[in-house]
Structures are given as C-alpha cells and as structure tokens.
Amino acid sequence: MKTAAPNTKPLKIGLFIASDPSTTGGIQEYVYRLMLEFEKQNHIVTVYGPRPENKLLYPFTRYVPVSKTYHVNLKNGFQPTINGPIFPLINFNEDILHIHEPYVPFITGRAPFISSALVKIASFHTGWEVSENPDPWIKFITASLPIIKPLYSSYYDGVTYCSQFVKQNWDILFNNKIPSKIIHYGADKSQFYKKSDHRLNILFLARLVPRKGVLDFIQAISLIPKHILKNTAISIVGDGPEKNEAIDLVRKYKLQTIVTFYGEIAGEKRLNYIRRANIFVAPYRNEGFGLTILEAIQSGCTIVGYMNEVFKESLLRYPEPDLLSPKGNIPILAKNLTRVLKDTKLRSRIQLWGKQHLKSFSWKKTATETLNFYRQLLSKKAV
After folding, report:
1. What is the tens place of the pLDDT at every residue in 17-49?
2. Cα–Cα separations (whole angstroms), residue 341 to 258, 273, 337
3. Residue 255 CB neighbour total at 10 angstroms
4. pLDDT at res. 157
5. How sure is the predictor about 78, in pLDDT bands with cuts at 50, 70 and 90?
6. Helix (H, G, I), strand (E, B) or coil at 288
7. Are the C-beta atoms of residues 221 and 334 closer than 8 Å to each other?
8. CB within 10 Å: which end of the chain, N or C, has fewer?
9. What is the pTM of this model?
10. What one-character DSSP code corresponds to residue 87?
C-alpha cells in the first residue's frame, strides 16, 4: 500500500484534462502554468489527456495521451466532442491525481475509478447561471448531477473551484463531505505593457460559441459611428461553430476594412495579440473565472463587456463598472465601446487600476495554495 509523501519530498503529480491540448483553452493554460510552478519546486509532473489532433500548443514536459477524440454532428447544429474510453494499462499511480473538469464521460469522469493515486482531487472551472437557458452541454450536465452525485464524494479526497460562482454550481455533488477550496487563477505581473493611442486596437479573444458573445460584439461595432472607428483595428482571435455566421455579419455591416479574423492561436503569439490591444471586449454570458480577463488586465487593457457573476470576483472594484453592461444589451455595449474609444484619460485610469489589481493574483500564489491543499489531503491519508 502506498504511504503519504512527507512535506520535504518532491511529489509525483498527475494533472488530467479532458480538453484537446492542440487547441487553446483556459484549462489547458491553467494546467500548463501549474506544471511550470510545480516543476520549479522539483515536483514530477505528468499531464494526461486526450490524444491531440494536431501539434501540442502547450509544451508540457510529460504529456501522456489516454484516449481518442470523436466529433459528432447533431441535427440542431450542436457539435459535441466526445472522448473515447481510457486506454488499457493507464492507472495513474502518482501521489496526487488532480482531475480537471471531472464530469466528462469516459475520460476524466472515469479516471478516479481506475486510478491508484494516493490522493484524487476534482477541479471545476465552468459555471452557469441557473436563470438562463443553458447550452446543450450545460443541459446535459445539469440533468446528470443527481445521477453522478453518489459517486463523487466516495471516489474523491478533495475538490477545488476556480471561483465562488463555480462552487455554487457544483458543491451539490459533495455536500461538504470532503475538503474543498476556492483557488483563483494567477496572472503574470511582469507582462504589463504600455499602450499606443495612435491606432486603437480592439480585441475579442475567445471560442466562437454562443456564450462568448462574438455575434453581439460585431452587432455592437456596427452601431458605432464610422468616424470614431477611423483609426481602429479590430481583431477576432478564436475559432468555433459561430465563425461563419460572424464572418457573414462583418460582410453584412461592411466592416471588412477594420475587422480581421485570425483563427485559433495559442502560447506567446496569443499573448502578443493581448499585449497590442487597448480594449478587450468580453460580452460573455457565463464564465468560470476569466483567465483571459486577467491576462488582458496584466497587459494594460480596458475591459468592456457584459456583467456576469464571475466578473464580480475577477474584476473586483473595477473603477468603471458601467462598462460592464447587462447581458444581451447590444446598444449599451456599443455605447460603452464608443465612450472608451473617445476617452484617453479613462483608458489611462483603468490601466493604473490594473497594476494595483494584479497584486492579488499570481501563478506562484495559485500553485502554492494548490500544493498546500495537496499536503493537507496527504496528511489526512497518513493518519
């Protein structure tokens, strides 16, 4: 039988994701950053996940593919990605197996049942507002909660959430039967950039799916007077099922000269788009914590978008809360974008706030809180 590792001994840590590591995503970025911080302290980290469909976008030191990925096209346009069963002979025998988005069938959902890791931890990164009509995937998850509830507190030793908002959605699975902790995402304070006001750059960076609001953004741009957009470049970075509809909207409103689609970009190239941006647009209907929002703040961007529950945590004490309009209110979104484009002093004031705000977030802090939670759970096993 395995025994708990002492506090001075490097840990063997498995980080398990259900998302394709050849695509961009907040969870992939989060796990990559954790890996880097853990390895600085000589912990041995292995990242598990689906077999990548293309070249890895994140340079994980050790990446072990554990399943195949399948794409399904349904009649209503919903195009889920389904992970196949975990390959035989994979047993995850680390000290810690940290499973992110543990509700995905066949892959992360099955991992705790076949793992021989000493401590198994579930981490949740996605939340939704019950009052809204959720997308098909959220409907599936919501319907599944009563079925999977008996399994979670039995097979996991601990659970983490990226925000209080996310915890409200998922805590029903555990009912305080196992230790839990809210651990926010980090930010790199060294990557704060001054902006040029000669040519203003507006950035939308997210998956092109309904909850991220790319179509609302384009419609809002169409409402801004053309002379205000004269020295403006608009970048849409991301891919997804709404891409063709978004391109059609740009053509419809004759915005081709100022709007450019760049597709899916990761790593340093992705950060470069954020660094160049003056204004970051986030018309998100729901979010887990908002890693990209923190990256935009650390790059000196002014945030304009929709207010949602999680932004109350990640944008705590935002100096211009009116720039976060009610969800779905496109005219107000357009009005707020116009205001920011015209007001240089406003953008400068938000930049100064951003430098102070980032003091609350760092990847070192995120990793330290996570490791402390690991040690807490290992200590319980040793008793």
Report:
1. 988 888 878 889 899 999 999 999 999 999 999
2. 14, 18, 6
3. 17
4. 93
5. very low
6. coil
7. yes
8. N
9. 0.80
10. P
Domains 12-186+362-382 and 200-360 share a fold: yes
**Contact (CB, 8 A) for 117 and 15:** no
Per CATH, domain 200-360 is 3.40.50.880: no
Distance CA 256, CA 18 (A): 36
pLDDT at 231 over 70: yes
Question: And the tokens for 204?
Answer: 């939308």
Structure tokens at 275: 């660094």
Residue-range domain boundaries for the chain: 12-186+362-382, 200-360
- Domain 12-186+362-382: CATH superfamily is Glycogen Phosphorylase B; (3.40.50.2000)
The pLDDT tens digits for 159-196 are: 999 888 888 878 877 877 889 999 988 877 665 555 55
Q: What sign does the dihedral 170-35-58-265 (CA atoms) show? A: positive
Output phi, psi for 16, to 5 deg: -115, 125
Torsion angle of the four alpha carbons 294, 297, 302, 308, in this order, in degrees rounded to the nearest 10: 20
Say if CB 36 and CB 43 are below 8 A apart: no
The per-residue DSSP string of 126-159 comes to: ----TTS---HHHHHHHHHHHHHHHHHHHH-SEE
pLDDT for 96 equals 96
Residue 121's alpha-carbon distances to 87, 108, 380, in angstroms, are: 21, 11, 13
Q: Which amino acid is at 35?
A: M
What does 175-189 look like in DSSP terms, one character per residue? Answer: TTSS-EEE------T
